[in-house]
Structures are given as structure tokens and as C-alpha cells.
Amino acid sequence: MTAGLPDPSASAAVLIGTSRYAHLAQLPAVESNLAELGTVLQDPTVWGLPEAHTLTVREPENATALLDPVYSAGERAVDTLIVYYCGHGLRDSESADLYLALTGSREGAGYTAVEYRHLRSAILSSPARRKIVVLDCCFSGRAARTLAAPSALAAQAGIQGAYVLTASPKDHVALAPEGERHTAFTGELLHVLRQGVPDAPETLDLETVYRAVDHRLGARNRPRPQRSQENDVGRLPLVRNRARASRRAPAGPVIDAEVEAAMISSGLQLARLLRSVGRTRDALPVLRMILQSGPPDADGDSVIVHLELAELLTESGQDRQAIEVLESAFQLTHKRFGPEAVTVCRRLAELLQSAGNHSQACEVLRHALDTLERGMRSR
User: Fold this and answer.
1) Three-state DSSP state, 297
2) Taking residues 309-324, what's their average pLDDT?
3) What pLDDT is recorded for position 143?
4) Over the range 176-210, which residues count as b (16 or more CB within 10 Å of their CB) and which as e?
5) CA–CA gap between residue 85 and residue 34 (Å, rounded)
6) Is the predicted pLDDT of residue 179 greater than 80, yes or no?
7) Which residues pair with 90 in a beta bridge?
8) How far is Cα 125 from Cα 122, in angstroms, rounded to an integer?
9) pTM for the whole thing?
10) Residues 174, 140: contact at Cβ < 8 Å?
């Protein structure tokens, strides 16, 4: 994997869009937005997000249909969580807050839509280190204000960073040009991801993507995007810059580390598929083979594979082997602060306690608390 890029096997994206409405104008471009944005994120020359980690929610009819996939993806994402919404943005007649329209929503009736604060809560509940929100809807700038408000962030424990990229300022409408394949904002976002930025480094961060999209929209006299961020997360690399790719190079990934990351991601997907159909015994050797394929890496996929393997071993009644796997993961993460380190400690302590090793379990938990305290102090 290219240095600095988010780990696709530990990330997830939820792409939400409503194109058909009972009481509002139709937005046919939304369907193209969803399909092509998913394809771009999965492109290994852009990012390489596994297809299984890309959830597409089309035409949600109620809050449950819109929010449940965000909670589900957020639970599994420990590196980066991307949530994209495209559709009508509404204002309630009684407030200035942003509401996300559903198929049956009505103008001026916020109770027929999903209030943005509920989506915000779903996103901020994720353990992902990076949380990215992209809103292509009218009045979406209100969301940037809401998510970034100190009082809102302070109420959420453990928030590492959140970045909101919106299609329009808080009191302006976004643009869906009639007859065009995409909405104005997402069309330019797709262009930047596909074509890259010629004068930028080999990897693009969110701030660079934002500036490029803003420049293209401004040049066409279209609504300008807005952004808000926490902990300077917009400066972290997000995708490869395709404008810097050599024209002589093959279309796919050519770096050994990237090939290895793709193999690990595919192996994880295969193991999870085998597990989902009850073939746990077949999934176990796949995960063991992944761990044997390269050196352990505390900042890469290795810890995720350790956790997955330990869980399967526990389900198979092989607790002793599961403890050994988690102890190996503990050695990788014991000096790091992050969600994987905490998860490793918690699961290892649970197994040690079940095995009667109470003193060791206490030591592991004590270490987890010390690590958490050091991490909090370093913020």
C-alpha cells in the first residue's frame, strides 16, 4: 500500500442517494453519482476499497434504511469511514437545521425527512480514525457547521477527526443541471479523483481535492463547495494522484506493497465469505496463510487478520490457539494507541479470564488503560 494512504481493508464507504421523490423534484443524476463514485473508490489506481466494504443505499424510504448501513459500516471501519449523501437537502419551517430528504419527504416538513444530527451521531459513533462526510445537497453547508461545533464534538467521546465536504454554503442551493449525467458537485469530484491534480504530490489529501473541485466549479460559475474539519484531518493523504501516474506504467498497482495489500484484502474477503456460509474450517487456513505471507505490521492489515483468526478459533473451541494469536497481536500493538490496540487487549483479557488466568487478564487490561491514558495525554 502506498505510504500514508488509508488502509482499504480496514475502511468502509456508505453511498446514500435518493433520485425519486413523491413530492419533490426528481434527481435522475443521483443514480449515476452512486454507481460511478463506488467504482472510482474501488479502483486500485485511485484507492482500492474492497467492493464488500462499499455499501450503496438507494432510495431510502425511512430513517432506519438510511442510518442502519452507516452504523453497520462504522462498526467495522477502524481506519477511514466515508459517508456520502446525494439528494434534496431540506430546511424545516421551525428551524434552520439541515434535513436529508427521503422518497416521501415534503418541503418544510422536517419530520418527513432525516435530521442531519442523527446521521452525525451514527458517523461519530464509529471507531474509525478518519471520518469523512460528503454531502451533495441543498443547504449542505449547515452540516459542516453542525458537525464542527465544539459543543457537538465535545459530547462525543474519542473523536479523532472528522472532515465535512459539502456541495454548497449553508444558505444556498446545490445544482443538478438538467440533462447532465452527474450533479454539478459530484461531477467535478469524480473528475478530480479520476484525472488527478497535475501539480500535486503522488497522493492527494482532502484539502487538495477540495481546492481542485472548488476551482473547477468556480470556473463554471456554479455553487462553490464548503468544508469543515477537526484535527486537521484534511491534510492526511486519501487517494493516489492519477495525474502523476506514468503513462508507460500498467493500469493496475505496480508496487510490491500494494500487491501484497490487495492479496491480504482478497484473503480477508474470502475468509469472511467462507465463514458466512458456515465453512469456518476452510476459513482458518486462509487467515493463517495471510499471516505467513509477509512480516507482521502493526500499522497495516496484520492486526486485523490476527483479530479475525482469533475470533474464528474461539468459535471453533480452540481457545488456547486463539490466546496465542492474540498474544502475538498484543506484541504488535502494545506500544500503540488506537482502536485495534484496545480491541486486542479486551479480547485477550476475556479469553485469559475464561481460561482462569485472572492475573494475566488484569495485567493486559491495566496495560490497555495505561495506553489509553497516554494516548489521551498526547492529543
Assistant:
1) coil
2) 82
3) 45
4) beeeeebbbbbbbbbebbeebbeebeebbbbbbbb
5) 9
6) no
7) 99
8) 5
9) 0.61
10) yes
Residue 204, beta-bridge partner list: 239
Run of H or E residues at 30: helix 29-42
DSSP element (H, E) containing 57:
strand 54-58
Convert the pLDDT of each residue in 331-366 to its tens digit. 766 555 556 677 777 787 888 888 788 777 787 777
Transcribe 75-144 into DSSP letters.
HH-SSEEEEEEES-EEEBTT---EEE--TT-BTBBGGGSEEHHHHHHHHHTS--SEEEEEEESTTTHHHH
Tell me what the pLDDT averaged over the chain comes to.
Answer: 78
With a cut of 70, say whether residue 301 has pLDDT above it. Answer: no
**Alpha-carbon distance 236 to 154, whole Å?**
22
CB 16 within 8 A of CB 82: no
Cα–Cα dist 152/131, whole Å: 15
**Position 309, amino acid:** L
Residue 343 has which C-alpha cell? 480491541
pLDDT tens for each residue of 200-221:
999 999 999 999 999 998 888 8
What is the C-alpha to C-alpha distance for residues 318 and 353, in angstroms, rounded to an integer?
15
Task: Report residue 78: phi and psi, to 5°.
Answer: -110, -15
Tell me 251's DSSP state: S
- Alpha carbon 352 to its chain centroid, in Å, reads 32
CA gap 267, 273 in Å, rounded: 10
Q: Let me know: does 312 contact 268? Beta carbons within 8 Å.
A: no
Question: In this structure, which amino acid lies at residue 103?
Answer: T
What are the φ and ψ backbone dihedral angles of 307, each rounded to 5 degrees?
Answer: -65, -40
pLDDT for the residue 254: 41
Residue 152's pLDDT is 35
pLDDT at 335: 54
pLDDT digits (tens, 9 = 90+) for 257-296: 556 666 677 777 787 888 788 787 778 888 877 776 655 5
**Contact between 18 and 87 (Cβ < 8 Å):** yes
Q: What is the DSSP string of 166-192?
A: ESS-TTS-----TT-SS-HHHHHHHHH
Nearest to 298 by CA among 262, 341, 265: 341
